[in-house]
Design a protein that fits this description.
Distance between the termini: 25 Å
Number of helices: 4
């Protein structure tokens, strides 16, 4: 979404070592006014379009992108594994989980995973009318 696009772009521009992305939605023309997608990416999965855009910004960043809904039981185990083993070397836990989701179910899934693993995470959101937002650090 809007927060995730900005966060992903800024981290990529800063040269973060690795970025793991999850989304299950596809790019729509209605996204163009607030996200970094381009009109020719309409219909692509958001993670594939994101990879295309982010790799053009900084090809030195290592990306993992998953077109899946993290709130399903099948995807939950995958999310846990990537938090536990998703560091740049593929053997350690990620340094930080950034939640840039737009729905309660996804927030609660991330909360459950991070609490289960003792993982610090940042939760963010924007109001429905997009005039206010929040960010908070959660330490289990």
């Amino acid at each position: 979404g809007g927060v995730g696009s900005v966060v992903a772009e800024m981290l990529t521009r800063c040269g973060i070592g690795k970025l793991i992305l999850y989304d299950y939605d596809s790019v729509e023309l209605a996204n163009m006014n607030r996200l970094f997608f381009r009109p020719e990416q309409k219909g692509m999965s958001k993670v594939d379009a994101s990879l295309q855009t982010l790799r053009s910004i900084n090809p030195d960043v290592d990306f993992e992108a998953y077109n899946m809904n993290i709130t399903t039981s099948d995807s939950y185990g995958h999310l846990l594994d990537r938090i536990e083993n998703g560091a740049l070397d593929g053997k350690r836990r990620v340094d930080l989980v950034l939640s840039c989701v737009d729905n309660y179910a996804a927030r609660m899934t991330i909360n459950q995973a991070c609490n289960e693993l003792g993982q610090t995470w940042l939760e963010s959101g924007v109001s429905e009318n997009a005039v206010s937002g929040h960010i908070q650090t959660l330490i289990p």
